[in-house]
Amino acid sequence: MDISADLRTRLRVIVAQRMQTDPAHDLAHLDRVWINAQAIADTPANLKILLAACYLHDLVNLPKNDPNRHLASRRSAEESEPILGDLGFSPSEIAAAQHAITAHSFSANVPPKTPEARILRDADRLDALGAVGIARNFAVAGALGRQLYDPTDPFARNRALDDLQFSLDHWKVKLLALPDDMLTQTGRDLAQARADRMIRFLQDFAAEIGHPVPEGWGKR
């Protein structure tokens, strides 16, 4: 990728000074999203804009249980403007990066209209899947004081799913459905491979807790 190493270094320094203590949304997450974006970017895209959007998309990171969570991506886009200006981005480049940042969020409900926005959204969601996704899911559960699973009914055979209380429920509510929501073909293929990895883990997990996974539970 013909991307300035200096730009990436400068972006990493800027965001490292602003990152909060959140193992699911730290500097390593931003690095992974950029790696994912490069893997997905098999369609024409401005890689300078994509790089900036990857590293600035979580400038404002609100907890998942914050009532203003849906505003985080918009606020991140707003706060990215002076940073991008200082880095020499043109007004049109700033606007493009801001759109990608705003549209990446699940809760913002903003349709991504550009290749950069679609790639960033897929790249960010891809980090919620696979081995890293498992680790992030359980880390968030611990930070929010949620139980790993309902010990009496782990797979919600006889109750409503509740991912605000049980971390494992979030797999069914959202995570395992992500491959079908990917906007790029490469993102969809990578997401499905990672979801399959999660299902294999889930089968081992279920065996250890003595509750077999119901047929079809791992599918939408």
Question: What labels describe this entry?
Answer:
single chain, 220 residues, mainly alpha, Hypothetical protein af1432, 57% helix, elongated
Structure description:
It is a single chain. α3 (47-56) packs across α6 (115-126) and α7 (130-143) crosses α10 (185-209). The protein has helices at 5-16, 27-40, 47-56, 72-86, 91-103, 115-126, 130-143, 167-173, 178-181, 185-209. With 220 residues, it is an all-alpha fold. It is elongated. The chain is built from ten helices and no strands. The mean pLDDT is 89. The protein has two domains: 5-111, Hypothetical protein af1432; 130-209, Hypothetical protein af1432 (Orthogonal Bundle), CATH 1.10.3210.50. The two termini are 35 Å apart.
Report low-confidence residues grouped into runs of 5 or more. none
> What can be said about the biggest beta sheet?
none
| Tally of discrete structural domains | 2
Provide mean pLDDT, rounded: 89
Radius of gyration: 18 Å
Describe the secondary structure blueprint for this structure:
Layout: H1 5-16, H2 27-40, H3 47-56, H4 72-86, H5 91-103, H6 115-126, H7 130-143, H8 167-173, H9 178-181, H10 185-209
